[in-house]
Design goal:
Blueprint: H1 26-33, H2 38-64, H3 83-88, H4 90-95, H5 104-121, H6 128-148, H7 165-190, H8 195-209, H9 213-227, H10 236-262, H11 265-273, H12 278-293, H13 295-308, H14 320-328, H15 337-367
Helix pairs in contact: 5-6, 7-8, 7-10, 7-13, 8-10, 9-10, 10-12, 10-13, 11-12, 13-15, 14-15
Length: 375
């Protein structure tokens, strides 16, 4: 029996047909994500009502009724946000009491920092070792001399004249740079086979995790000078930065210890079978895997550290929040909307930096092929 009598063989491919309307498109997305069940539908409606109740007044206060320009509080009496106040005090908010004629130093230090950080943050840029040497060795020396004026013939600017966002970033960067390597050492010490090292590391971690950061800052500000020899001074800003770094190194140690415990035992045994020393095992095999696993925890600790730098305000250091609070005391800008605008502005600044850290950590995770199933 011939095949042609009972079958039809198509000689050309069938033209692609559009997918059903109920599968793709905006309506399908809404149905699948927002109205897929009665409970989801009710939740969506409640959230929409809440947003309709809160967002329009907020937009009106932030933008429509806001005062954007002006020289005093007279422009901020209409009930909207007083962005004119931020514009008038922006230099104070950014630089604090740093001499106006010397603020170019801060800008130069920021440019040098970005010039070293950007190549380090981009994986494809070569020469990472030199970037690290520059940021950890060369840049701190240059930044210290430029900002203080010591050793290069510039006017000396004491740290009690530093303030604003500048101090917030300095404290955060110093805290991050010190807390991460110290936390790694503490995590390794807590897992050490030497009892003394393990006990000392555990005691250090548990002590700093058991006291609030505010108490630590007060102790460093008030009690530490009492125990110093007569005539010996210790810079107040440096004390605060060291307190923040040491405090968060204990939390960083626990994050890193979680990563070390997540590395399979076979990795340790394999590295020992290759004849690697303990330091080579940690540097080449174990630690890269452990840090990769705990990238979200590390970045979360960095974000918490960055936000907690605002606590240095309680010991008399004028960071971003402290400088904003000081600026709101200006009688020329005494208005009900000025403090609210100042704190909203501070919140935006903190959110921008924290969100940037979060997004960069997501980028690194994706590049290292970690956690893709959870996105």
């Amino acid at each position: 029996m011939a095949l042609g009598d009972h079958a039809f063989v198509r000689r050309a491919p069938v033209a692609p047909r559009p997918p059903p309307r109920g599968v793709v498109g905006p309506l399908a997305w809404l149905r699948n994500n927002l109205f897929s069940s009665p409970a989801n539908t009710a939740t969506t409606i409640l959230i929409a009502l809440f947003l309709a109740w809160t967002v329009p007044p907020l937009i009106r206060w932030l933008f429509i009724d806001a005062a954007w320009t002006g020289d005093d509080r007279s422009v901020c009496l209409d009930g909207g946000a007083c962005w004119a106040f931020i514009g008038a005090k922006i230099n104070l908010i950014l630089y604090g009491q740093y001499p106006p004629d010397e603020r170019w130093r801060i800008v130069l230090v920021a440019a040098l920092f970005v010039a070293g950080l950007v190549p380090l943050a981009i994986p494809r840029v070569p020469g990472k070792r030199w970037n690290v040497v520059y940021l950890l060795v060369v840049f701190p020396v240059i930044a210290f001399m430029l900002l203080t004026g010591i050793g290069i013939g510039l006017d000396k600017v004491p740290t009690d004249r530093w303030g604003g966002l500048f101090v917030t970033l300095v404290a955060a960067v110093m805290g991050i740079v010190i807390s991460l390597p110290l936390g790694i050492l503490l995590a390794l010490g807590r897992r050490s086979k030497l009892p003394v090292v393990r006990w000392l590391s555990t005691a250090f971690i548990e002590f700093w995790r058991g006291v609030p950061l505010v108490a630590v800052l007060f102790m460093a500000s008030v009690m530490l000078p009492i125990f110093l020899p007569p005539g010996v001074t210790f810079d107040k800003l440096l004390r605060a930065m060291l307190c923040i770094a040491i405090f968060y190194s204990a939390y960083m140690a626990e994050v890193v210890r979680g990563g070390l415990q997540a590395v399979p035992k076979g990795q340790y045994e394999g590295s020992m079978a290759l004849g690697l020393s303990w330091f080579q095992q940690m540097r080449l095999v174990v630690m890269p895997q452990a840090l990769t696993v705990v990238i979200p925890g590390i970045v979360n600790t960095f974000i918490a550290l960055f936000k907690d730098t605002s606590l240095i305000m309680v010991i008399g250091l004028f960071d971003l929040l402290g400088m904003l609070k000081s600026a709101t005391n200006d009688s020329d800008w005494a208005s009900p909307s000025v403090p609210a605008t100042a704190y909203v502005f501070a919140g935006i600044i903190y959110w921008v930096f924290c969100f940037g850290l979060s997004r960069y950590s997501v980028f690194i995770e994706r590049r290292l092929s970690r956690g893709k199933l959870h996105r």
